[in-house]
């Protein structure tokens, strides 16, 4: 009975009673219980944990947030626009929505309608607040939008980091945080105004929901990326759907939240796009049909072998302000954008001289003699269509000269 009473007192954590007991087997259960209690308490403290076998540590949420936010704001302020689509398919149309002028690409022609104005308005709304309420200039609006994108990316990464720490442990979470902060790919994509970057945000949200056993968050994350961003990102949701439907058998919850996603995301998107195009438009469906079921869509801009993404994963302010932007003929043989038509219904007008095969449209060019300023790239090669304008001192004078890193 004495031994039994002693063990009960040890469970209450009485160190004095434990010290009065002779060394022997009776004390070991109490010691094991105390270690177990200490371990459980340490586990509940969150990202920081210290064990007797060694130190296991990962940054707290606030520390991780500061690291991520610093890296993302650096990207917003310093990274270049590396994709021409970002300039002409997103910044230019949003400029039209904000200021009434902008270049229109064939993707925004009502004849093809494979871009979403609803996606543009997600970015145009905060830009409109900054531009018209605060009365700031366009350069500040540009940086403001990029900083908003960087902040959104940072928040998604933070919750993903916490979910990884909880699901896979602090070692994995710590390494993943280091890769996120130092990744070249994240630096380029975090503040980019592109549907692929938006899908990256939603994928982080979806994975967070999956790791935390939140069906609603997982389904809504995948749906947002596929409906609002890029429809092909739905493939990322296949492992999530397999886990929810085949392994966990959560058919009811999956079906309900899929229906909610359609109502909350697809219906407003179709309504906004149909308003701007002047007809019923389902932009994600048009993108899918063009890229998969047309003879030229999949191969128009080049294809890569299956191992491209693995190879590329290892490697992992081009803004010109002028009076009016025009193009002169050069060795580039693709299709260039043209200004939106005048009037409030310009987004509903089918523009002339556009095609969906990226064929050259000579109507885009003006005579170089009509130009007051010229932005030119000088290379080692000189052709009749691309002469070295800076050497023609009689007609041109160099105002500014900047080095250019040519990737090819």
Automatic annotation (TrEMBL):
Biased composition (Basic residues): 1-13
UniProt keyword list: Endoplasmic reticulum, Glycosyltransferase, Membrane, Transferase, Transmembrane, Transmembrane helix
Localization, UniProt: Endoplasmic reticulum membrane
Keyword Amino-acid biosynthesis: no
GO terms for cellular component: endoplasmic reticulum membrane
Main location class: endoplasmic reticulum
Region (Disordered), start-end ranges: 1-54
Pfam families found in the cross-reference section: Glyco_transf_22
Membrane topology according to the record: Multi-pass membrane protein
GO molecular function, a single term: alpha-1,2-mannosyltransferase activity
Enzyme class: transferase
Transmembrane segments: 140-160, 172-194, 214-242, 254-277
Record's compositionally biased regions (Basic and acidic residues): 28-41
Keyword hit for Ribosomal protein: no
Pathway involvement of the protein, from the record: Protein modification; protein glycosylation
GO biological process, any: protein N-linked glycosylation
Enzyme Commission designation: 2.4.1.-
Top-level taxonomic group: Eukaryota
Assigned protein family: Belongs to the glycosyltransferase 22 family.
Protein name as annotated: Mannosyltransferase
